Amino acid sequence: MVIGVFGGTFDPPHLGHLGVADRVISSGLADEVWFIPCRDHRFGKTPAPYDARLAMCRLLINGREGMRVSDIESTLARPGYTYDLVVTLKDTYPDHAFRLIAGADVYHERDKWHRYDEIARLAPPIYLAREGVPPIDLPALEAPIGASATTIRERLRSGKGPLDLVPAAVLDYIAQHGLYRRAM
Ligand code: ATP
User: CB–CB of 28/157 below 8 Å?
Assistant: First the structure.
C-alpha cells in the first residue's frame, strides 16, 4: 500500500487537515493517510501536550476509512526529525511505500528542514496548495478548506466563535481540557 505520511503539529487539528487527507485519498495518490503528530514543535513553539493532540486527531478523523492516527513519533529520539520518522516507517513497514503530505508552506520552508532532499527521495512529497501561501512550481493538489491552526488558536483565546473549522468533538475536548486559553 501507499501511505500518505501526514506529519504536523495538529495544534489543534482542523477541517483543513481532514480536507487534505480526503483529497489525497480521493486523488488515488495514496491508499491511506496516517496522521502523525510531532512530539515537540519543530521550530521552538510550545504546543498543547502530545497526548492531547493525538486524542484530538483521533476525534477529528472519527474512524474514517483509510485514515489512521499514529503515535510512532513517541518512539523516536528527540528532536524527532521527519527524516528519522520516514526512515523508521520504512524500516517498520517494509511492505508499504510512503509519501510525505505537505502543504505549500512546507515546500517554501524546506531549507529549514533536516535532510529535506533525503526525505523527498524516501517519501516523494504530495504537495497541496494552501490559501494565503504563494503557489509552488511543482504539481500540487487543491486543498478544499482554507484553515490554519494559528488562526483557530487566536480565535479560541479571544473567545470568538462559533468555530466552524473544528468539529464539535474536538471543540468539546479543547473545552474539557482547558486548552488554548492563554498565549503560549
Ligand atoms: P499552524 O498554523 O500552527 O502552523 P497548521 O494549520 O499549518 O498549523 P500543521 O499541523 O502545522 O497545521 O500542518 C500540518 C500539515 O498540514 C502541513 O503540511 C501544512 O502545510 C498542512 N496544512 C494544514 N492546513 C492546511 C490547509 N488548510 N490546506 C492545505 N494544507 C494544510
Answer: no
Q: Domain-by-domain residue ranges, the chain?
A: 2-145
**Is 98's C-beta closer than 6 angstroms to any atom of ligand 1?**
no
Nearest residue (CA) to ligand 1, atom 23: 17
Tell me: domain 2-145, CATH 2.40.160.40, correct?
Answer: no
d(CA 17, ligand 1 centre) in Å: 7
CB of 33 shorter than 6 A to ligand 1: no
Per DSSP, the residues of 27-74 read HTS-SEEEEEE-SS-TTS---S-HHHHHHHHHHHHTT-TTEEE--GGG
Residue 29, pLDDT score = 98
Between 21 and 132, name the one with better pLDDT.
21
Residue with CA nearest ligand 1 atom 30: 103
